[in-house]
């Protein structure tokens, strides 16, 4: 892919007024060039929280804003560590900034909707890595170190922990930013305080002992945000409706029937795209997949849904209409699985009331589960506390809140969706 037509301005020392952090700087000319790249500018048209604005109307912020915020926090973190005597070369500094800027480049429309509906076994992390490798070719291997940091292959592990860890810059930004835009104040975290407490011990990221309380608040805020925002039952309902609409469109496309969609969305609907296609072993070269993927954003889905609203297939038409008009499924959330007989009863009622075939009922009545683990001490991502003595300890050993299992045990809840007409 050649984007030599992009006009990279000579005035690259920009200052951005961010509503969360105030004025932030773009740290370097190369970072500016990457921000200007079409693959990053595309993130302006992808909402950070998908359909969460159906519940919290203010939640219309974008992946682009989040990437800039995470970039700002990474810059602050690196300057903090350097100020404490941690040796960081200019090459390492630039690579860490590039890695956090590009970490979400592989997100598709409405977050994970495509992963669950029209592509097979490909995560947004897989796509981010594919785009980073292609950008590395375009920029003549300048992103190689950033890729090693992103994938955890670089020998200095604390850089990877700044990208993906319990106190990474991604998490610090999205919690604070999502709290700001949803108005859920319980999710607000003291990102500045936590970053100022960062240090490196044994080449791993650590939090200084006096930052324990800020870290505890981060873990509690993450738990609260998951249940109040990310896994809010109406958010689950709306995103399930979106996924089922796309699944039905995919089924129609598999039959070879004519279906309106934007060209790049059509590519994914009419072709079986899987992990082999981004590794060079599939039907399509990775560059072709990247070409179509980087032309997708939220508007492709909603424009297509408006056309599908009038499609001859009753199920696709109905699901599209419900999504556009916010006529969402009813949803129940509980701690135990729903009895099979309850689900079967609702399915029979839906068949009759909606006059649909039995094989279509799973688009309307279905159950699933969601889970949340506030703190996952899985070895490499375990939070280290740097004690005043210079020794390190596990957070579980020095924090009182880990006596409470709700932080260190996975909480699972079950949801049941069905049309409101079937109540």
Give an account of the 3D structure.
The chain is α+β, with helices and mostly antiparallel strands. It has a single domain (13-423), classed as Hypothetical protein af1432, CATH 1.10.3210. 48% of the residues lie in helices and 10% in strands. It contains 19 helices and 9 strands. The strands form 3 sheets. Strands 3-4-7-8 form a 4-stranded mixed beta sheet. Strand 7 (384-386) and strand 8 form a beta hairpin. Helix 3 crosses helix 8 (169-182), helix 4 packs across helix 6 and helix 5 (124-138) packs antiparallel against helix 6. It is globular and about 70 Å long. The model is unreliable at 1-6 (pLDDT under 50).
How are the SSEs ordered, and which strands pair?
Elements: E1 15-18, E2 22-25, H1 29-36, H2 38-41, H3 63-83, H4 90-102, H5 124-138, H6 144-151, H7 157-163, H8 169-182, H9 191-196, E3 198-201, E4 204-208, H10 212-230, H11 233-254, H12 263-270, H13 275-279, H14 286-293, H15 298-308, H16 314-325, E5 330-334, H17 340-354, E6 366-372, E7 384-386, E8 392-394, H18 395-398, H19 405-408, E9 411-418
Parallel strand pairs: 4-7
Antiparallel strand pairs: 1-2, 3-4, 5-9, 6-9, 7-8
Helix pairs in contact: 3-4, 3-8, 4-6, 5-6, 8-10, 11-16, 15-16
């Amino acid at each position: 892919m050649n984007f030599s037509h992009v006009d990279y301005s000579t005035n690259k020392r920009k200052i951005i007024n961010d509503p969360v952090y105030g004025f932030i700087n773009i740290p370097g000319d190369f970072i500016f060039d990457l921000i200007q790249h079409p693959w990053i500018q595309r993130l302006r048209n992808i909402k950070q929280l998908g359909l969460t604005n159906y519940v919290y109307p203010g939640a219309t912020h974008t992946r682009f804003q989040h990437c800039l915020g995470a970039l700002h926090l990474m810059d602050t973190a690196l300057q903090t560590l350097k100020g404490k005597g941690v040796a960081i070369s200019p090459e390492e500094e630039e690579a860490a900034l590039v890695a956090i800027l590009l970490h979400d480049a592989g997100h598709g429309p409405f977050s994970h909707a495509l992963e669950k509906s029209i592509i097979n076994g490909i995560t947004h992390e897989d796509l981010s890595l594919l785009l980073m490798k292609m950008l590395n070719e375009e920029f003549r291997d300048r992103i190689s170190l950033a890729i090693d940091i992103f994938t955890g292959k670089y020998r200095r592990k604390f850089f990877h922990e700044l990208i993906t860890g319990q106190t990474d810059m991604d998490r610090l930004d999205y919690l604070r930013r999502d709290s700001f835009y949803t108005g859920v104040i319980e999710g607000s975290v003291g990102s500045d305080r936590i970053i100022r407490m960062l240090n490196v011990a044994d080449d791993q990221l650590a939090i200084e002992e006096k930052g324990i309380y800020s870290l505890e608040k981060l873990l509690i805020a993450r738990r609260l945000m998951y249940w109040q925002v990310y896994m809010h039952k109406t958010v689950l309902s709306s995103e399930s409706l979106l996924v089922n609409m796309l699944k039905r469109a995919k089924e129609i496309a598999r039959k070879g029937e004519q279906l309106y969609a934007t060209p790049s969305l059509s590519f994914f609907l009419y072709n079986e795209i899987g992990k082999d296609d981004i590794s060079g072993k599939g039907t399509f070269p990775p560059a072709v997949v990247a070409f179509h993927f980087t032309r997708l954003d939220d508007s492709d889905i909603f424009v297509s849904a408006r056309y599908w609203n009038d499609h001859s297939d009753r199920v696709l038409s109905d699901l599209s209409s419900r999504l556009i008009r916010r006529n969402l499924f009813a949803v129940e959330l509980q701690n135990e699985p729903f009895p099979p007989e309850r689900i079967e009863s609702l399915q029979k009622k839906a068949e009759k009331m909606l006059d649909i075939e039995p094989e279509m009922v799973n688009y309307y009545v279905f159950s699933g589960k969601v889970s949340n683990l506030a703190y996952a001490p899985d070895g490499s991502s375990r939070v280290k506390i740097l004690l005043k003595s210079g020794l390190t300890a596990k957070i579980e050993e020095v924090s009182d809140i880990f006596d409470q299992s709700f932080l260190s045990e996975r909480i699972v809840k079950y949801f049941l969706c069905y049309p409101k007409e079937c109540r």
